[in-house]
Each structure stands twice: as structure tokens, then as C-alpha cells.
Amino acid sequence: MAKTHLKMTVNGQEVETLAEPRELLIHVLRERLGIKGPHIGCETSHCGACTVDMDGKSVKSCTVFAAQAEGADITTVEGLGDPDNLHVLQEMFREHHGLQCGFCTPGMIIRAHRLLLENPNPSEEDVRFGMAGNLCRCTGYQNIVKAILAAAAEMNAAKEAAQ
Ligand code: FES
């Protein structure tokens, strides 16, 4: 099948690739661009393992055609921090044991990042509601919620200190 030329920004870098019209964004990210943070779980828009940020919204990249991401600005978990310089959300997931097998973690963290941008002072209920599209098969939700609330507190304290 003829391939389409695609251009998008991923984690701050302009990237170009070829993809078939039927290809999903998750496959282009992982297989064509080598970005393995977003995982493939259900491929039916239920689990959230494939969550990425696209033009300021959390999307499940298994239900977005790569062609729909033409010109988009995409952030994956790799765009938040790296092993030597963790994002506060990554740090709090580690500190509060917000990961068990780790499979859902990249989707959880990138979704939590958007949630905290939209609501920097969430209640526990807000976090649970905002994260409802991301499933953890280890069912470790308690510590995931704790980690997100702790990250919100850290980020707010840093903002206050900077004022
Ligand atoms: Fe996309 Fe499960 S792999 S929601």
C-alpha cells in the first residue's frame, strides 16, 4: 500500500516518516520512530498503556491514525525526563511505589502530567476520576494516586518558591 509522508514534533524534535494510511500512531511511534515508552496493551482504547499527549490533550495512540497526527505536537514519557534527570512525577512514582510491573506506568505518567497541567490542585477524587482511562492490571491504584498527589504538592511548592 502507498505510504504517506508524515511530519510531526515528538518530544520537542521534528520528525518525518512514511506510514501507510491504515497505520496507528502507536505503531508509528514504536516501530518507525523507535519511541518505546508508550506501550501496547489492549489496542482497543480501554487500558491507556498507549497514552500520549497530542496537541495538549491525552490521547490513546492505539485509536489515532498516524495520519491524524500530521503536524501534531506529541509528548511521550520520554519527553518528560530521563534516568539522570527524572520529572517530579517520575520521581514521585518511584518514591511512593506507584509502579509494580511497570507496564502501565508510561501511560499513567503522561496522563497524570496532563491532568496536573489542567488541574494543579486536584483532590484524591479528581485524580481518580482523571486517571479513570488508565488501567493497572496489578491494581496498584492506591500508590499511583498517592504519587500523583505528592507530585502536585511538589510542583506547587516549587512554583511558590520561585515567586
Ligand atoms: Fe491503547 Fe490499550 S493499547 S488503550
Automatic annotation (TrEMBL):
Any coiled-coil regions, as ranges: none
Family annotation (InterPro entries): 2Fe-2S-bd, 2Fe-2S-bd_dom_sf, 2Fe-2S_ferredoxin-like_sf, 2Fe-2S_ferredoxin-type, Beta-grasp_dom_sf, Diverse_Oxidoreductases
Entry GO MF terms: 2 iron, 2 sulfur cluster binding; metal ion binding; oxidoreductase activity
Record keyword Iron-sulfur present: yes
Record-linked PROSITE patterns: 2FE2S_FER_2 (PS51085)
Protein name: (2Fe-2S)-binding protein
Keywords: 2Fe-2S, Iron, Iron-sulfur, Metal-binding, Oxidoreductase
Keyword Chloroplast: no
Pfam families the UniProt entry points to: Fer2 (PF00111), Fer2_2 (PF01799)
Occurrences of domain 2Fe-2S ferredoxin-type (ranges): 4-80
